[in-house]
Amino acid sequence: MTETRATPSRSVTKAVVPAAGLGTRFLPATKAMPKEMLPIVDKPAIQYVVEEAASAGLGDVLIITGRNKDNLLNHFDSVPELEYSLERKGDEGKLDKVRESSEVAEVHFLRQGQPLGLGHAVGRARCHVGDESFAVLLGDDLIDPRDPLLDRMIAEHDSRGATVIALMEVPRESVHLYGCASVEATDDPDVVRITGLVEKPSAEEAPSNLAIIGRYVLRPEIFDVIDELPPGRGGEIQLTDALNYLAEGKGDGPVYGVIFRGRRYDTGDRADWIKANVLLGVDHEELGDEITDWVIEFADRLRAQRSES
Fold this sequence. Notes:
Layout: E1 14-19, E2 39-40, E3 43-44, H1 45-55, E4 60-65, H2 70-75, H3 80-89, H4 92-103, E5 106-111, H5 118-123, H6 126-129, E6 134-137, E7 141-143, H7 150-160, E8 163-169, E9 179-185, E10 191-199, E11 210-218, H8 222-227, H9 239-250, E12 255-259, E13 264-266, H10 270-281, H11 288-308
Parallel strand pairs: 1-4, 1-6, 4-5, 8-12
Antiparallel strand pairs: 2-3, 6-11, 7-13, 8-11, 9-10, 10-12
Helix pairs in contact: 3-4
């Protein structure tokens, strides 16, 4: 079970996980199964995200869902019949794994209703979050638990009274895949003041190579901004547009970025999803040695095939 740290002095205690997307990049696998339930080694991707929130002391997690996402609810619920069967068999190891997902955090669910964009999904959390600051974790971005990010973001939020966005340096040719930040340096090389945000710019138009990755610590003022926001790219309510409004100094607090230099896995891309399974698989406590040996053998075989062709 993931340990949740008690942090009574911190202002952030709740996390929001948008999970209402259709997962079209993974069709046909996601025709009947939410993309968030696709496994990374032996756990669905969304469980890693909820565990990350809980490990940062955010034991209250709201998952924003869409239609045909009942599997998400079932995964974080208890399964008495299965637990009883495992208890009778004396299989404590599997019993612990089954219970992990239902005990990791206090998980709540709310439907987005209409697929009107990430900003709209975050706005739906207002009834649960209220007038508190909160974290947003996107399920397509997995942060390696050995490289904690949320703790640092929450600390910056608390010390600066700011909205905080996770940023990552990416090659210029990849900037068009992300939201991108224009920034000013601070006295900390891993923290920047954000002065503007652009959604998926071209390499020529990008103000920097600092891309937004799927972690945010937001002040409650974001809800009023989202409510007044016109549709943006793709006719959707874009969270980046709301954050850009605040970054331009039109809100009550500044916007800062924490530059993440650790291990991140993009599970929204098919190739990167496969890579995440391999990278986390080689470090798995039960499977790691077997997978590592196979990867080495397979790499040798591929090199031999390439040299012959």
